[in-house]
Protein 1
Amino acid sequence: MTKDIIKIRKARQILKQGSEADKDKVLHELEAIAGSEITDAISWDDKGQVHLHDSNTLPSRAKKGIKKVKATPGKYGTSIEIEMHDKLGALRLLSKHHGLLDDVAEDKRPSVIGINITGPDAKDVKVEEK
């Protein structure tokens, strides 16, 4: 797995204000995450047995797409969990960068309208005693 994963917030900042070299690096990372598939790292057969692929043979995009691998020993063998990075987040950011999604400008968002409500004046209220 890559050690220098770029967080989404940092990626947005670089895509807006970064150098061309930094933008290219971010785009390659996002494309790797967006293109990664769980079947790059594991496979299963018709009996439901899961097989891990050797980490030395994993494609680069698969390594970049994996967020966490957790192995837990148990009574019936070792349980393996593989968590992938947010693919939809990467696709959304790439789509925005390439102009496929409309950016909502700040001035196009609805604004909050203040409403002031006043009650009747005290002199207009009659108090009746029983």
Protein 2
Amino acid sequence: MQQGDLGILVEPRRDTGGSALYLAPLRAIASFARAKPLAAIGALIIVLMVVAAVAAPAIARQDPARINTRAAFLPPSTAHWFGTDNYGRDMFSRIIYGSRVALEVGLLGTLLGVGGGSLIGLLCGYFGGRLDLVLMRVIDAVQAFPGLILAMAIVGVVGPSLTMAFIAIAITLIARPARVVRGSVLSAKATPWVESARLLGASDARIMFRHILPNVLAPIIVLASLTLGIAILVEASLSFLGLGVQPPTPAWGSMLSGAGANYFSTYPLLAIFPGVAISLAVFAFNLFGDGLRDVLDPRLRGAR
């Protein structure tokens, strides 16, 4: 306490602005976890997966590509937490490094697919006319094929590689965000603030990217979170078929198709560990995407 000019004891001011700034995100995370516990579990799994991918050299001490046939088919132990495969390679290291491939291909494929589809939807919804007609027919053609079949066809024609894997995934994911964003833009285009911006002489680019796009970001974010699980599953499927990441790079799908399939009856752990990793990753992104949709979509708030 301090004595003021009139002799009154006054409590000194405390600067809480800095602490409040840091505590606000923590409060938001805690509120989200209380409201959507399943989504919080999914987010926790995603965070652990990202940490494992980033810190793979520190977490996985064994070289995932090192072959030692004398150490083949070892059971789980303190030296090899998940055991070893038919070439004596450490399965734990291969699972950890495989998360890098899954996240890299999934994130790049989702960014390209959702970003490209959103841009197409934005242009079609705003301009309409012949541009809308042509681009939507292209989207219809893409959507006519099952996603995995289309990705297999693209990679099969060009050749399997990491780059072609995420490009193929991006093409298969482009249709849904294009349609969703187009519908949202058609609604936003008729709002009073867009009409006011047009009357004030704002350019089409300014109206689209300054006034319309920020108001349709919520469905784009939700689509991206839900699509990531699909992208990881498609990447695993391509690797399983030999059309994705090529050996000796560790990938969850190729682990299932190689030793996991050949030795399943005698040593099923070779298939169980990568299968569980794929399932957990897809499950986590689906849980998180569902929770994010409920939070960001005003029509669903309070529905669950």
Protein 3
Amino acid sequence: MSDIEIEAEPAQAAALFGDRIELARAYTADLARRGEELGLIGPLELPRLWSRHILNSVLVAPLLSPGVVGDIGSGAGLPGIVLAIARPDVSFVLIEPMERRVDWLTRESADLGLDNVKVIRARAEETKLDWPLDQVTARAVSALSTLIPLTAPLVKAGGEMIFMKGARVDDEVAAAAKAIRKARLSDVEVLVLGEGVVPEVTRVFRATVD
């Protein structure tokens, strides 16, 4: 582990996680301890692990509905494991192609006792599910013009895409106009979550798959 100091837990964390805060603390500590070694996070992320990654992810939790949510390119478990901690009433399928990350996700969800998590090793376009997803999430995976065609076939009619994006999300939406039409998405919107609550807001592309 790097000798860079991990960020102290922000005051907002307990309110956002409620009675699940101890699990969030355990996950964050595990990620701080093993994340750089396993190539899950960069060495410079420790001083902002809570604010940039953990809180950034948990802000999406209220957008989820009870059902099955797929997290594409789950990586370190951001947002998949964070959301599984915050929403025990939702089932999560973490989809990740890299073996060492799959091993991490599998071990971490077991260590945390997250019985609402299933891990699948696959790329989005190769994923075969026995049932369509109610919602699909992704964070820092690829541009919307690429992500929408890859994930639309996995989502049921009436299901939702909930993708965490960067500051240029509006440009991505414009560039993805053709993909949005082809996937027959409706109720397309960009949400900004956490303003006035956390240091770094979360921007979300949300749309319904018709």
